[in-house]
Design brief:
- It is built from five helices and four strands; from the N terminus they run αβαβαβααβ.
- The chain has a two-stranded parallel sheet. The chain has a two-stranded parallel ribbon with strand order 3-4.
- The radius of gyration is 14 Å and the shape is globular.
- The termini are close together.
- The mean pLDDT is about 75.
- The chain is α/β, with parallel strands linked by helices and about 100 residues long.
- Helix 3 packs parallel to helix 5.
């Protein structure tokens, strides 16, 4: 929601990517974000992809030839980051475009 309200991104064209179980359809929060983005002057679409974010996001970034990746970052314990790594760090290593990370 912070992204949708940001004046920095107002008026841009973009895509909201939802990764996971596509049989559930767009989540209510995704639709609310689309509505808010559109009301702030942005042109957005949604795209649902089955799979894991670590693979699906870089694949989508490359397939669409995106110029900018905007994503939220969530805090996890040091032990979890050590054992599993951070999705945010993974995105930074596996995409070669400008990435705007917002702390949630």
């Amino acid at each position: 929601m912070r992204v949708a309200k940001s004046l920095l991104l107002s008026g841009l064209e973009g895509e909201i990517l939802q990764v996971g179980d596509t049989t559930l359809g767009p989540a209510g929060r995704t639709e609310a974000t689309v509505d808010l983005s559109r009301s702030c002057g942005s042109t957005v679409t949604t795209h649902l992809v089955a799979g894991h974010p670590e693979e699906a996001i870089p694949d989508r970034v490359h397939a669409t030839r995106a110029d900018l990746l905007v994503m939220g970052a969530y805090s996890h314990s040091a032990a979890r980051r050590f054992l599993l790594g951070s999705q945010t760090s993974h995105m930074l290593r596996h995409t070669d475009i400008t990435t705007l990370i917002l702390r949630a």
